[in-house]
Every structure is written in C-alpha cells, then in structure tokens.
Automatic annotation (TrEMBL):
The keyword Lipid biosynthesis does not apply. This is Phosphoesterase-like protein. PANTHER family: CYCLIC NUCLEOTIDE PHOSPHODIESTERASE CBUA0032-RELATED, PHOSPHOHYDROLASE. Residues 13-208 form the Calcineurin-like phosphoesterase domain. InterPro entries: Calcineurin-like_PHP, CNP_phosphodiesterase-III, Metallo-depent_PP-like. Gene3D superfamilies: 3.60.21.10. It comes from the Bacteria. Keywords: Hydrolase, Iron, Metal-binding, Plasmid. It comes from Phaeobacter porticola. GO terms for molecular function: hydrolase activity; metal ion binding. Belongs to the cyclic nucleotide phosphodiesterase class-III family. SUPFAM superfamilies: Metallo-dependent phosphatases.
Length: 289
C-alpha cells in the first residue's frame, strides 16, 4: 500500500511558497517583530510537513532594507532546507545588492531574477515583478517578452503553467490595491494571449490571504512571514487592523487538472481540538488519483 501511495504522490506537483520574509541584518532591530525567528519556524514547519515538495519558491521581499548581511543570512538559513529552491524579488529588495552577494542567484538573459522550472507536466514560472525605486514594481517590455517566450514554449510542450510573483496583480477591493502591481493589464494580456493553460497565479506583497480570479485567471495571495492585515473592504473607514499572526506560507498542489492552494500557518497557529471529538480524522483515505 505504501509503495502504491508513493507512486501516486510521485505524479502530484507540490510547491511551497514563502513570501514577505522581511529579514534584517544580524544585530539590527527587527521590523516590529523577529522575522528571523519566524523564518526559522517556517523552514522547520515546512521540513516536517512538506519535505517531499518538488520546489520551494521564495517570492520576494526577502529582506526589509536590502542589506547584504540580510541576504547572506537568508542563504545560510535555507542551506539545510531539503527542497529544491528558487528566489525572486519584491519592492523591499535591491536586485543589484542581491546579485552581488547571493550564493546561487539565477537570472534571465536580461538580468532579471526570473526562473522557469518544468516539473511533472507543469511549467512553473517565477517572475521578477520588482523594479528599482518602484513600490508597485512592473513588467517593462524585456520582462514581458521573456514571459511570452516561456509560455509559448510551455504551450508547445503541452505543459500546464503556474505563475508565481511578488506583487499581487488582482484587485482585492481594499486600500492595498493602491500599491498592487503597476499596470497589471500588460502582464495579464501576455498571459492570456499566450494560449498557455494557466492553472494558477500566486502572489504575496499585500500581507493577506485571498483566493479569487484576475481577468479570468485563478489568483491567490499569501499573508507571508510578516504582519497580516484584516480584510478592509469598500464602505469602511477608520483603522485597518494589523496582526502578528498567523504567519503563513502557501502550498500549491496540482495533478495537472485540479490545482489547489493551501495556507499553512506556522506562527500563531490555533491549538488543536480534542481528537476524540473527530474519530474519523484518524488514518483517513485520500481520493483516488
């Protein structure tokens, strides 16, 4: 039975997404909370629960102030994490600083920190939405051309596409929309015009968990490692509350047809209820693939 289950799981794509780490250089004041300890908790939790993942994406705002020592600490901390990894950047990062001190930085032909990984029938595109000096980032023509070429190739190969970036592109109908991805329609047009089968778009930046659609594409956002904001929808005024927890990473699971995004809390997680209340939750069966 175990061998059979392993064979089934081998066909499932699993991606861990960690975002908005906001690490600071050792010995400096943490931004309102100990983000280093929280990142340690994230790596420990993901190692225990998702050490079988195919990929871990660190989706931007790796640091809070783009300090070289913070990037170097980031590399040291993740060195023992037993999952293949890739990194992209956010508005709190500095591309030149990151590239100068990262151990394994990878860029596209134009120097943007963008990646592609083909895994289990999927094309995973990790996009660099950061732009120097721009809080809202963006996708100038060179970036868009790279995205278009990768999606054209994915379509030719019959691969399902999953897109991961830092800046949230979809409107959440909250004040955070004022600093979501700049000109999101330009990227959306490239994604849709490609004809590729895009299963999911995942982003960070807005510090809130959400699921919905962006121009017809499934789109989710992750609260990440730093503070979380409450839903603050149109019609409200006054203070939007911010919370220390739960800190969260995402887990994307896809069989090529059904794609799910799960939200894993690792700081501020609720205490489990008495297991005796839910006897059916022990050794449960999974749906046949």
């Amino acid at each position: 039975m175990k061998t059979s289950e392993n064979a089934k799981n081998a066909r499932l794509l699993k991606i861990v997404v960690m975002n908005d780490l906001h690490l600071v250089a050792p010995g400096t004041a943490a931004p309102r909370m100990d983000t280093t300890a929280r990142f340690e908790a994230a790596l420990r939790n993901a190692s225990e629960r998702h050490g079988d993942a195919d990929l871990c994406v660190f989706a931007g705002d790796i640091t809070d102030q783009a300090e070289p020592d913070a990037y170097q600490m980031f590399d040291r901390m993740r060195a023992g994490f037993p999952v293949p990894q890739c990194v992209t950047l956010g508005n709190h990062d500095d591309r030149n600083v990151y590239l100068s001190c990262s151990q394994d930085a990878e860029t596209d032909s134009n120097g943007h920190v963008q990646w592609r990984r083909d895994i289990k029938g999927h094309c995973v595109l990790v996009l660099d939405s950061s732009e120097p000096g721009e809080e809202r980032g963006g996708f100038p023509p060179l970036k868009l051309a790279w995205v278009a070429s990768q999606l054209a190739d994915a379509r030719r190969l019959g691969l399902k596409a999953i897109v991961i970036l830092h800046h949230n592109p979809a409107a959440l109908q909250m004040p955070v929309d004022t600093y979501r991805l700049a000109a999101p329609g330009e990227l959306l047009a490239v994604l849709k015009d490609s004809g590729a089968d895009i299963l999911q778009v995942v982003a960070g930046h807005c510090h809130i968990s959400s699921a919905g659609s962006w121009g017809g594409l499934p789109c989710a956002t992750l609260a990440g490692n730093h503070h979380r904001v409450e839903p603050f929808l149109r019609g409200r005024n006054g203070r939007q509350e911010c919370y220390e927890g739960p800190a969260q990473y995402g887990v994307i699971v896809s069989n090529g047809s059904d794609c799910a995004v799960h939200f894993e809390s690792y700081v501020g997680e609720a205490e489990p209820m008495d297991g005796a209340l839910f006897p059916k939750k022990v050794d449960q069966r999974f749906e046949e693939l």
